TrEMBL record:
Functions in the biosynthesis of the anionic phospholipids phosphatidylglycerol and cardiolipin. GO terms for molecular function: ATP binding; CDP-diacylglycerol-glycerol-3-phosphate 3-phosphatidyltransferase activity. Belongs to the CDP-alcohol phosphatidyltransferase class-II family. CDD domains: PLDc_PGS1_euk_2. The keyword Mitochondrion applies. It is found in: Mitochondrion. It comes from the Eukaryota. InterPro entries: PGS1. Pathway: Phospholipid metabolism; phosphatidylglycerol biosynthesis; phosphatidylglycerol from CDP-diacylglycerol: step 1/2. This is CDP-diacylglycerol--glycerol-3-phosphate 3-phosphatidyltransferase. One of its GO terms (biological process) is cardiolipin biosynthetic process. It is an enzyme of class 2 (transferase). It catalyses: a CDP-1,2-diacyl-sn-glycerol + sn-glycerol 3-phosphate = a 1,2-diacyl-sn-glycero-3-phospho-(1'-sn-glycero-3'-phosphate) + CMP + H(+).
Length: 361
């Protein structure tokens, strides 16, 4: 189960995404098969490097002074028998971090300048464009964001945090992530002000994968234990909700459907309305589609992109509500009993490992 959105006849968004991809391609490593490398690339590149085989070789490799020739050489990935070519800049992200970061920041600054010049004023006139003979108005606004912490770009996380800060007790936010391990600043915004008399914090539902719909379920070895790492993190978040007396407005739901893997990401924002049934929703006016899991790794380690969609079109809002309802129909609200039985109880070793690896999950 995943979420996708198709945008048609929108040259502004297409240009933004295309230019961003151009930047990412320039700082990424091309991967080719060994046969192609032997035929075409072997005579025009530096000598082929082999990955360190054992733990000892990996440690020696990590403490050996970097040589420019070495880091700009292609690397053989033995398990896949593929060749990883140097990126365009020739800077290694792992071993020449400062130079690589500076190069990425420069390219992104050029991207930002170009898009600001070409798209300036588009949002300001989106709903009241009177440039033509006849007034032309729009009912939907798209706003793309990007996150690239290694290049000191925190656009998406700043937008999400500011949105959480703006919401009040008249709003209801649904957030979905297959790996519920929310960034601490987001958690603080969600639980903030709960104990005050003003009670201005929004109502919040998080939809995540159960242990049986987690994408790591069924893997061999330690990878097969990852769903239980997330269960312990979910347990920690639940008791944090309880500690801050937020259970009346903050809920966690587990998506569980036989034969499905849950991988949906994004959010929906709507007015609370007067409904008392917690499993029905109002039509959202703001949604987000993207790659982020809203966790520490998405904020500080990975490259992420989202597009926020704001609309006053009632037909579109009803369609977005139905999309959310499909997820809710197969989701169960998590109660404290979930963490008291044999399958959900506190497991010290798993919990310690989950906390130690929290920034990588």
């Amino acid at each position: 189960m995943d979420r996708y959105v198709v945008m048609r006849e929108n040259p502004y968004l297409a240009k933004w995404c295309s230019r961003l991809m151009d930047v990412l391609v320039r700082v990424s490593h091309r991967v080719i098969c060994r046969e192609e490398f032997d035929k075409v690339w072997s005579e025009v590149t530096s000598p082929l490097l082999e990955e360190p085989k054992g733990l000892f070789q990996k440690i020696v490799h990590s403490v050996t002074p970097v040589k420019e020739q070495a880091v700009s050489s292609p690397t053989h990935h033995r398990r896949s028998d593929c060749i990883i070519l140097p990126n365009e800049s020739k800077w290694c992200p792992s071993e020449q971090t400062a130079q690589f970061t500076q190069h990425c920041a420069k390219l992104l600054a050029e991207f930002e300048k170009e898009m600001s010049t070409e798209l300036s004023g588009v949002a300001l006139t989106a709903f009241t464009d009177t440039a033509g003979e006849k007034e032309k108005t729009y009912d939907t606004l798209l706003f793309p964001t990007v996150q690239f912490a290694r290049a000191h770009l925190y656009h998406d996380s700043h937008v999400v945090q500011h949105l959480l800060r703006l919401l009040t007790d008249q709003d209801h936010l649904f957030l979905t992530s297959p790996y519920l391990n929310m960034y601490s600043d987001f958690v603080e915004e969600i639980l903030h002000n709960t104990n005050s008399n003003q009670n201005k914090s929004c109502y919040f539902d998080a939809i995540t994968a159960s242990t049986i719909t987690n994408g790591w379920q069924g893997h061999k070895g330690m990878a097969g234990r990852i769903p239980y790492f997330y269960l312990q993190l979910e347990r920690s978040f639940y008791y944090l909700m309880k500690y801050y007396h937020a259970l009346h407005r903050v809920r966690v739901r587990e998506f569980s459907r036989e034969g499905f893997t849950f991988h949906a990401k994004g959010l929906w924002v709507m007015e609370r309305g007067e409904q008392k049934d917690q499993d029905t929703t109002q039509p959202p006016y703001l949604v987000a589609y993207g790659s982020t899991n809203y966790g520490y790794r998405s904020v500080h380690k990975d490259v992420e992109a989202e597009v926020f969609l704001f609309t006053v079109n009632q037909t579109l809002r009803d369609s977005l509500r139905r999309e959310l309802q499909l997820l809710l129909d197969d989701s169960i609200t998590v109660e404290e009993e979930r963490f008291l039985g044999l399958n959900g109880k506190f497991q010290p070793v798993v919990s310690v490992m989950a906390q130690m690896g929290q920034n990588f999950l």
